[in-house]
Design goal:
By secondary structure, the protein is mainly α. It contains 2 helices and no strands. The longest helix is centred in the first third of the chain and has 28 residues.
Length: 64
């Protein structure tokens, strides 16, 4: 794949994943579980999104 294609597709995929995880975290925290019950998922979601962004940077942005 070309550099531009990898960059665009990787960005779209990473953005969709992070938006989904963020929405799910907001839904859990504002719903029945409350902030205290949703805090562990928020932390896990933040770590997962950080790893996804790093992988996007490592695979698509950084030139080897």
């Amino acid at each position: 794949m070309s550099y531009a294609t990898k960059l665009v597709v990787g960005f779209i995929g990473t953005a969709i994943l992070c938006i989904f995880i963020g929405g799910l975290s907001k839904s859990i925290s504002t719903g029945f579980a409350g902030f205290v019950g949703g805090a562990p998922f928020m932390i896990i979601g933040f770590v997962v999104c950080a790893m996804a962004v790093y992988d996007f940077w490592d695979e698509c942005v950084r030139k080897k």
